[in-house]
Amino acid sequence: TVVIKSHYDIHCATLDESGSSLVRALCLIDWTPPLLICAFMEYMRPPILKTIEICKIPIDYDHHYKFFTLPMEKAKALKDITLSDGITIRRLGVEEAAIANDLWPYKKTGSLFFLRKIAKYSMCYSAYSSTNELIGWIFIDTSGGIGTLHVVDEYRGKKIAQALVVKLCQYLGGTLKIDPHAFIVETNYPSINLFKKLGFIENQELGYWIQTKGKNDH
């Protein structure tokens, strides 16, 4: 059983089918500040919910996501997408992560720290207009899969999101030699259609995120 607390995020995994060791480990965490329990699968849900009950942790939201995977060999074989209007794709740096956070409609407390950390230690990609304006980005998720993907409104419909996903899949499959995976909100039909178009397979198992409230905030 492993539990990792990284700033605002909690990551955990266990081979203990009873879940008791995961409960014991999670109960050692200070749940006073708001924390996000990230990307856990169905089999870990009972011990996590039991921990929430034991520690009396207030919940902000409890969301489930569809889980998609792409075989490594198919990821390696994906071809670059040709973009028009002088749009280019390149690696995203730490400085660009701050710009992405400012433009991101879903930014929140801790998101700047999260994006900068991912940009510093992982391979992420950005899309730039012909005038060198940041117009889209994709980050590796802390679970090791495809994370934040966004294209600013006025540049949608130009295959930028597809080009970004392809670039990251090539890296995950070709360099890291792992099967790319993604968690997608079940009502995000444009993303679901895009990933299926690229060959991603929808799994029966769901992924979950639980955002807690600070114990002093309720």
Automatic annotation (TrEMBL):
SUPFAM superfamilies associated with the record: Acyl-CoA N-acyltransferases (Nat)
InterPro entries the UniProt entry points to: Acyl-CoA_N-acyltransferase, Acyl_CoA_acyltransferase, GCN5-like_dom, GNAT_dom
Pfam families, alphabetized: FR47
Residues crossing the lipid bilayer are none
The N-acetyltransferase domain extends over 87-218
The terms under GO molecular function for this entry are: acyltransferase activity, transferring groups other than amino-acyl groups
Q: Which branch of life, at top level? A: Eukaryota
- Gene3D superfamilies cross-referenced by the UniProt entry: 3.40.630.30
Question: What PANTHER family does its record include?
Answer: GH05617P-RELATED, GLYCINE N-ACYLTRANSFERASE-LIKE PROTEIN
Name by which UniProt lists this protein:
N-acetyltransferase domain-containing protein
Question: What are the leading ranks of the lineage?
Answer: Eukaryota, Metazoa, Ecdysozoa, Arthropoda, Hexapoda
